Amino acid sequence: MSASTSRQKYFKSFAKALAVPLLALTFVLAPSFTPTGHVDIAHAKSAKKKVEFGLKIVGKGLAKVEKAGKAAQKKRGIVGKAGGILKNAAKGGQKGVKAAEKGIGKVSKGANRLIGKSKLGRTAQKAYRKAGKWQTKQINKAFRNCRGKACNIAEGAAKFAAPL
After folding, report:
1. Domains in the chain: boundaries
2. What whole-number distance in Å separates Cα of residue 110 and Cα of residue 48?
3. Which of 39, 60, 65, 141 could, after both became Cys, cross-link 17 (CB 3.0–4.6 A)?
């Protein structure tokens, strides 16, 4: 009886470790893509910010899954075998996340170079940077007198939800 409850305990922890990052990624990426497919500089940068954040969460979640898999691998029986499978799957997932992050950076850099080649593109980039600085200044101004962990979390959420 205790063997089955310990197995259930480990599988529940694996399920939680997998479910949280996957759900977080879904909620982060869902608002990034509009059904009309309208793409402009601000929207692309906002989507990039949300995707990078989602990849960061998924990477951390996979690291926890790998750690849990290593711990389960030390056990005997089916739990140990499942732990090895989870550990290796999480390790592969982390490599995929790192590759995606690297690819996003390359695409973004290439797009910025391409946009910066024309005078109109450089003007748009400059306006976007100014708008971003103004937005950051306004958020900082709003949270200037607010200190503490809750305020820091709220400020981070405001910066994340901001369009620029």
Report:
1. 2-115, 119-164
2. 14
3. 65
